[in-house]
Design a protein that fits this description.
This protein has 247 residues and is of the alpha+beta class. It is globular, with a radius of gyration of 20 Å.
């Protein structure tokens, strides 16, 4: 039976899983679960993932959720996957696990909470929480600093002093790319202090061509829509200000 990946490419973990499959020529069926339409909350999807989150995997009778677990399974179960993604060397695997375990409670927490309380809240008609955004920005900044000072200190251009990317590189870079939804000024403010992180992101993009751009295309379309909406809002605000000044 064909491997099935349930994903929404607006989801960072979904993109990492889809990208891995494409890079390793794994034959799979991508089934879109549109989070914006709340399809992840359907009874049908709950049968696949009781946590009601994407991504999820179905391989025959086997079901799996949580992106890190899925990446490990794919790298282990499909012999066509190159060894550098999840090396046979146990010590190297343990190092990759240490990065992945750290990711969800640090980088992901900071990035998603910051986005939710800055650019996404107004776009979705919600009220942003400035205090939550400020706290999340501290976590995000600390996370980027740790990536640069702990895992990008060697001669290798990828995490853990490697010369080839692992599933940890995919997971973390897909996470950070979500920050592209910010305005260029906000993105630069957050990322500009971390030159090594920026070089590592570019190295990962180059190592995963052309699939990286394809998998992230939906993100850049969303960014363009947000920028257009923000520009429209500024135009309307300026028009109102001009009108009041004439009254």
């Amino acid at each position: 039976m064909t491997l099935k990946i349930f994903a929404d490419r607006m989801s960072q973990p979904s993109r990492a899983v889809v990208l891995f499959c494409k890079l390793n020529r794994i034959n799979f069926e991508e089934i879109k679960i549109d989070i914006s339409k709340r399809q992840h909350l359907s009874p049908e999807f709950k049968e696949i993932n009781p946590m009601r989150q994407v991504p999820a995997l179905v391989d025959g009778r086997f079901k799996l959720f949580e992106s890190h677990a899925i990446l490990i399974y794919l790298a282990s179960a499909f012999p066509g996957a190159a060894d550098h993604w999840y090396p046979a060397d146990v010590s190297k695997r343990a190092k990759i696990h240490s990065v992945l375990d750290w990711h969800h409670s640090n980088l992901r927490q900071g990035a998603t909470t910051y986005l939710r309380n800055t650019v996404l809240a107004p776009a979705l008609g919600n009220t942003p929480n400035p205090q939550a955004a400020a706290e999340a920005e501290k976590i995000l900044d600390s996370s980027l600093s740790k990536i640069e000072s702990i895992w990008l200190t060697g001669s290798g251009i990828f995490l853990l002093d490697s010369y080839q990317p692992s599933i940890a590189d995919l997971s973390l870079v897909c996470e950070i790319l979500q920050l592209e939804l910010l305005t260029d000024v906000e993105y630069s403010k957050i990322m500009s202090p971390y030159k090594k992180v920026q070089q590592w992101i570019e190295a990962t993009k180059n190592a995963t061509k052309p699939h990286f751009s394809d998998v992230h295309a939906i993100l850049f379309k969303a960014k363009a829509r947000l920028q257009e909406k923000q520009a429209t809002g500024r135009t309307e605000s300026n028009a109102k200000s001009s009108l009041h000044s004439k009254m």
